[in-house]
Design goal:
By secondary structure, the protein is mainly α. 70% of the residues lie in helices and 3% in strands. The chain has 23 helices and five strands.
């Protein structure tokens, strides 16, 4: 079968499975819709958390970023994995013990204020919409390449699927769908990595092939020969302070992501929350220890195949629809003629382009853009690698299905955060606290549909490539949620005035810096830190403002301080005392 036929088959099977699981897990009560009835086993929640957390950025974009950035791309590995450890150790068990439904629910109750709740809702929606834009773009990229539809159509297909199991199943449907999606994405990531490692080095274990085979040394030499710096040379494109800030922003941003935090509300008790965190780390490590190897293999294959290839206009494609694409071929030292048909499909998407600038009919890869004749979108690296390596069509199709699983699993979690922020934290907690179960669930489903429409718009009109957009979301989470949650758990003196001021300052500063630098040409006036790393400074501002304002305003009520103290007492196995909901 062709790659397209295999892709249709895998998408039909996987999407059919997701829809079936969503239907079987449909719910009618609010606890099932928002926190899966708190009945998810630890190992299943670990897999669901891994799928929720390993988004399109992890599956599609991270290896591409590392492939282009080399050593500097390690910020994504260190930031995202380190952040999950922070989340597992500092937040997960205590938030589960607190016994709320959402992050704004925790903020509103801990800081005894509906104003604090509203600010937290704004932060959650801001972070989630920014993050979901990257997921929808990932869906569009996969569909546009492998099913020959435009990106917009691909996004709409993804919207329909994710809306189905999110609307009827809520968190319960999303959780069990994510368990299946984790299985699909990890198999889809590992099979090509293992196969390419074996093909290039003779070692089927990607991590060992990457570190012991000499492939990195060969890649370094090829890069130097082409005028690039060595692949492993640090601080090639970014200053040390920027690398540090990006790592910190990604780390604390991970710990503050509302769609990941809410996963720990779905388990039966605090003990299960701890175990599910451990399982999630194991599941995540399978992909994250493989990504650097796959990135290096992909870059080696791309440079080896594209540089020095002959280029000619594809006359058949011109006759078919008037689009100018190119055919590439290369003669090896042994006289073997190699044709790179894989470039045809990616050229049609516009994510891979060639320009014979000097008219010599030979493609040249170079660091200098004035002579470089290849433009490769970072988001196609993982998806194109099986084709570049000449793997079987079913492997290529499996990778496409894995990319879709990664994007849809995270998108579903983000959509539920948006829905619960509006339906639970605003409608139920503040507008209609006497709403019955049926009305609460109905409002939640309406909010999911509204969130899907917003996500679809940003998927069709994204503000950047997948990894970049997601990095912005982490910066916003770092500057808004991380300080407030950390202080809310470990400090009895932080009050509502401090929390509100801190969240607003952190969010507005970070969002303003990102928008100003990326879209209005503002210079990097803050120590030359980029938009991806400015969340670290926003976090520090949040901490400073929160602590200073709390110090000059009245302390929290005694019952709030008692609840905070009880969170860390080991003899309390269940949730902490839930405060009265009559907030100012």
């Amino acid at each position: 079968m062709t790659t397209e036929n295999w892709t249709y088959l895998f998408i039909f099977l996987t999407f059919g499975t997701y829809i079936y699981i969503g239907w079987r897990a449909r719910v009618k009560e609010s606890a099932g819709f928002y926190i899966a009835g708190q009945g998810v086993p630890a190992i299943a929640n670990g897999a669901a958390t891994a799928a929720d957390w390993m988004s399109a950025a992890s599956f599609i974009s991270m290896a591409g970023l590392i492939s282009f950035m080399g050593y500097d791309g390690a910020v994504y590995l260190m930031g995202w994995t380190g952040g999950y450890v922070l989340l597992a150790l500092l937040f997960a068990p205590y938030l589960r013990k607190f016994g709320q439904y959402t992050v704004p629910d925790f903020v509103g109750t801990r800081y005894y204020s509906d104003v604090a709740r509203i600010v937290a809702v704004i932060c959650a929606i801001f972070v989630s919409i920014t993050y979901v834009a990257g997921q929808m773009r990932g869906v569009g990229i996969v569909f546009s390449r492998f099913l020959n539809v435009d990106v917009g159509t691909g996004v709409v297909i993804g919207m329909v699927i994710v809306a189905f199991f999110a609307v009827i199943g809520g968190m319960k449907g999303i959780t069990w769908t994510q368990v299946a999606q984790y299985g699909v994405l990890i198999v889809a990531f590992m099979i090509p990595a293992v196969t390419i490692a074996l093909k290039l080095t003779g070692n089927p274990i990607p991590q060992l092939a990457f570190t012991t085979s000499g492939i990195v040394e060969s890649l370094n030499q090829i890069q130097v020969d082409l005028g690039f710096t060595e692949y492993t040379q640090p601080f090639q494109g970014k200053e040390m302070i920027d690398i540090f800030c990006i790592t910190v922003a990604l780390m604390v941003g991970t710990a503050g992501l509302p769609h990941v935090i809410v996963r720990f509300y779905t388990v039966p008790n605090v003990r299960a929350a701890r175990y599910s965190a451990v399982w999630a780390i194991i599941f995540i490590a399978l992909l994250y220890t493989t990504a650097p190897a796959l990135a290096a293999f992909a870059r080696y294959n791309l440079i080896s195949s594209l540089h020095g290839s002959s280029i000619s206009v594809n006359a058949e494609q011109l006759a078919e629809d008037g689009a100018q694409t190119y055919s590439l071929a290369k003669t090896t030292e042994e006289g073997e003629e190699l044709n790179f048909d894989w470039t045809q499909g990616w050229q049609k998407t516009g994510l891979l382009t060639f320009e014979d600038k000097n008219g010599d009919g030979i493609i040249q890869l170079a660091k200098d853009e004035s002579i470089n004749e290849v433009n490769i979108d970072r988001d196609i690296i993982v998806l194109s690698t099986p084709e570049v390596a000449g793997l079987a069509p079913w492997v290529i199709a499996l990778v496409a299905a894995g990319g879709l699983a990664a994007a849809l699993s995270t998108a579903a979690g983000l959509l539920l955060v948006i829905s619960s922020s509006l339906a639970h934290d605003i409608y139920f907690r503040m507008i209609n606290p006497k709403a019955d179960e049926a009305k609460r669930v109905a409002v939640g489903r309406i909010m999911v549909l509204a969130a899907v429409l917003v996500a679809g718009y940003f998927g069709i009109n994204p503000p950047g490539f997948v990894g970049q957009v997601v990095a912005f979301a982490f910066g916003l989470a770092a500057s808004s949620f991380f300080p407030i949650i950390l202080l809310g758990i470990f400090s009895t003196s932080v009050n509502r005035e401090g929390a509100i001021a801190g969240m607003l300052v952190g969010l507005l500063f970070t969002a303003g810096y990102i928008v100003g630098e990326k879209y209005f040409g503002m210079p990097r006036w803050c120590f030359d830190i980029s938009s991806e790393g400015i969340g670290a400074i926003g976090m520090l501002l949040n901490f400073a403002v929160t602590l200073c304002v709390s110090a000059v305003t009245p302390p929290p009520p005694q019952e709030v301080q008692d609840v905070v103290e009880s969170l860390r007492l080991p003899d309390h196995a269940g949730p902490a005392i839930v405060l009265d909901e009559g907030h100012e």
